[in-house]
Amino acid sequence: MAPLSEFLIFAGIGALAQLVDGALGMAYGVTSAGMLLGMGMPPAMASASVHYAETFTCGASGLSHWWAGNVQRPLFWALVIPGVIGAVIGATLLAHLPPLWIRYFLTPYLLAMGLFLVLRTTRRKDRRADVPPGTGVLGFVAGVLDAAGGGGWSALTVTTMVARGQEPRMVIGSVHLAKCIVSLAASITFLLSIGQSKLHVVLGLILGGVIAAPFGAWLVRRLPPRVSTLMAGLTVLALGIYNFYRLLR
Known about the structure:
Layout: H1 4-24, H2 28-38, H3 43-67, H4 73-96, H5 99-119, H6 135-149, H7 153-163, H8 168-194, H9 199-220, H10 225-248
Helix pairs in contact: 1-2, 1-9, 1-10, 2-3, 2-10, 3-8, 3-9, 4-6, 4-8, 5-10, 6-7, 7-8
């Protein structure tokens, strides 16, 4: 059994990632996976641990959005089917490629994701209720990158669709419900490919996320959106820089 101190470290990672996610509505996976990678955990194990935990955390969030009427069914289906296919492909690649190759991919991915969050803007003011062309492709790409990189589903899908003029409330609800299914698909693929993750890692991430969730909700009501976005982007960017430093050693 893992020492209590190690369990508390993973709970702290889950809590910090949930605070970022609560303040921004995204970036739980990429933040927690980046921290696990920074601790030296193999990429496949880090992504698997995050997705095992996200199956529970995103499930609760997605169902809450569904019950609140924040889910647009055509948008949900346009995202979830290609997203599941992409997640299976991404998890399979991550489980079978050499860890060093994956680190060479994940480091620029974290750097790019950090810059993406820092520089993202939503300029459009008009809102659209349809499902724009290319949404399925977006779901597939986000699914692949999310499973291979440990996170990034919401950061890619939410920002892209809101920037294209879709209603933020419906986008966030549909994305979170789809994320539950995508995480489950990635988790099953990881389970079949590499076996179970370390239980104390998954439980720590879940516990920390559950405890921090109310604080994240409190934080998002008080921080301006641009400030929370900048904070999340700088966090992920710092993780990418740290992993780049580790590659050079």
